[in-house]
Amino acid sequence: MEGSSNEDDGLMQDNADLNGNNINTHQIALDGGMHIVEAENSNPISHEHDMEMAEPFVGMEFESEEAAKLFYMAYASRYGFSVRISKSRRSRNDESIIMRRFVCSKEGFHMKKDNFDDGKKKRKRATIREGCNAMIEVIQKYYGRWVATKFVKEHNHVVAPPSRVRFVAPEEFAHIEPFLGMEFHSHEDAQTFYYAYASRVGFEVRIRLSRRSTRDESFVMRRFVCTKEGHSSPYEENYDDNKRKRTRAPAREGCKAMFEVIKKEFDRWIVSKLVAEHTHTLAIAPSKVHYIQSESEVVVLAKSGGGVREKSAVGTSNTVLQCGDSVRECPNDDSSSSDQVPKDENRESFFKIEEDTQNLLEYFKRMQAENHTFFYAFQVDKNNSLTNIFWADAKSKMAYYYFGDAVTFDTSYKDNQNMIPFVTFTGVNHHLQSVIFGCALLTDESESSYIWLFEKWIAAMGRAPLSLTIDQNETLMRAVTKVFPDVHRQVNRWSILSKCREKLSNIYDGAFEAEFENCVNDSETIEAFEWCWNSLMDRYKLRENTWLHSIYDMRQQWVSVYLKHAFCTEVSSSHRPDSMNKFFEKYFNKKTSLLVFVSLFEQAMSSWAETEALEDFANMYTKPNLKMPSVMLKQAAELYTRSVFEVFQDEFVESLGYFCEKINDGEIVKYNVARDGGKLPNISCRVSYNSIEKKAKCSCCKFEVNGILCRHILRVFLMVGVRSVPDDCMLKRWTKNAKSGYVLDECIQYNDLCRDAIKYAKEGASSMEIYKVAKESLQIAYGEVIAAKKDIGNRCTI
Q: Which intervals of the chain are annotated as region Disordered (predicted)?
């Protein structure tokens, strides 16, 4: 008997070994010509940086307990340990699991048995538990999602990440049945085979018994059984009569099916015991994915397939837009014809797994059935092969309604051929956090595919943005120009700076990096930028560098001082928008199934939404620190969010280091504003101030570009005695009330009511008494809504 539980009533200790459900890989060698699908991991997760990026955290949300388990097992495999279930808690209402605790397999200690002499030879039991405290605990919340409430990262033993990943499909074992005497090269190979066999036949497996050598503590026997083996142990023996009793839902039914292997000479493992019959009905085609752990490798057991099975799933030879159950054909745009941009066969194969494609389509259908504001579209080529997918949920639409004035189209995935071909439409909210406005899986990078994607995105969002930032790509730029002729277009400055780091790797560090980025990011005028650029070219002898020549020729598209004609959300040179590429590098490469990818991405979006909500809450009850007593700073602190206020306060403080020189008098007074004692004293910004309307405009156009007053205007305000920020200089999208007011989009209103209705249903169905109250109240509320609707309709007809 493994450790005991001291938890409250309702808490049970499972000690279910998930060693067979953790990611790791092995080379299987079975006699009989078995075929194994093997794929080397070209980017093994072995660096400390990748380990940190893949960590769980307290507050992380999951769609289900199964999703939480899979995530932690995947994390465990990357980190280098195995997992088991330690404790669970069930609901007193319906016996469903409401809490799970997953721990390292070395958690706890083995209980000491009483010493007695029965005349038999004793041998020391191998120690496999070392009191490790690493764990994650997830609890089901009232809104149905599972939240990580506890997380301990540290282990008290050595862990080592795996070095490669191999995918094994159950269909690969379709013609192989287990038999006595079957041989394997290792117990991991036997485990992989039996898990794949179980997945194909229709049952789940756990490890029942193990035996280790007393010499080196290596395994010499392993027994795998059906999860319904044995009987749920009654725990009425240890209870207090004064406590409420409940019956544990039976999970085991005495099934005898098992598969035991023992180690023989020459390190061969032989099947010594086998029971194939089950005492219960087997499931057909179970959908669980198994991750199997060993010391250095990862095996992922999943289903395989090829091609697209049904034309109706992804369309005919024309492009097909999928919106739930409705399918309508659109004119063929030849988005993947061979006479256009040649396809990357490696990326095209991303959609070749039939099971993945069908599961993804069904997932999108379910999402739209739950909420009709969910939008998705599929694109296929002439050969009926899936090429591109786009989707946007209600959260993305609502975020776009409030913060869709400036959008970045992020295609940074294309720099890494091992990543999922994922692109996003992103923006920045009022806390300077990244938000998602829509996503796509884009395997074809032709101009027509980009046009298709932009058109579907606009159809989902309802309107175009004020400005669109894209990566440096001629094909992409042509598509953007055709779809968004009136939208300001610019090239992503940070992507160019990243390429500079590669192109100029011999000097791009230390002093040059700081000077170069200051030149690009902090130049206040065009003259200042030109002076700094020429100075750098001369001092570092870069006049002949072709890369620098090329980006200088297109400086009007990416250097901030030239981009004064459209709004963007980059409020300071120190604020760099988060790239979604970092998130994908944590978990996703092209070996990740589509459904797992989309599900985990949905969880990540929920986590980001919760982060935004927490920041909203913090802004309600906390105030930022003022660096100096000022009426203007106090006013800004009351209205701006904390993140934006810090930017405003930096501008205010910097303004004190500038001096003003009046050029003329009159209704509109003009000033030259320059840095006091700067390197470029002759280069200044010109501020025009209307003394009657108390409005100011600066030649740097910072306010027009990002909606926050620049240091030059603030310096003039201080000089002329303006002590508070004028209302028209306080952009609402940066304030704490950015999301106030009515949302006119009917879809958004529908989504908001659906969320409240789900909460109402969960609470209202908790008991029969509460259900009656909830039902009666709902009927009254429904009647009031219908009456109000009729009243509004009558008023509109008068």
A: 1-20, 325-346
- Give the whole-angstrom CA distance, residue 125 versus residue 110: 10
User: Which pLDDT score is estimated for 594?
Assistant: 76
C-beta separation of 426 from 437 below 8 A: yes
Structure tokens at 684: 């200044």
Per-residue pLDDT of 326-346, as tens digits, reads 333 333 333 333 233 334 444
Q: What are phi and psi of 410, to 5 degrees?
A: -95, 110
Please state the pTM of the whole predicted model: 0.54
Taking only the tens place, the pLDDT of each residue in 199-212 is 888 888 888 888 88
Question: Could you list the residue range(s) of the whole structural domain that residue 793 is in?
Answer: 746-797
Do 661 and 538 lie in one domain? The reply is: no
Q: Are residues 768 and 679 in the same domain?
A: no
Calculate helix-pair angle for 594-621, 354-370, nearest 10 degrees: 40
To 5 degrees, how large is the angle CA 179–CA 185–CA 188?
A: 85
Asked if the structure places residue 778 within a domain, the reply is: yes
What is the Cα–Cα distance from 254 to 632, expressed in whole angstroms? 75
CA–CA separation, 563 and 545 (whole Å) = 25
pLDDT at 348 exceeding the cut of 80: no
- Exposed, middle or buried by CB within 10 Å (0-12, 13-18, 19+), for 684? buried
- Composition of the chain by helix, strand, coil, percent to 5: 35, 20, 40
Contact 336, 385 (CB under 8 A): yes
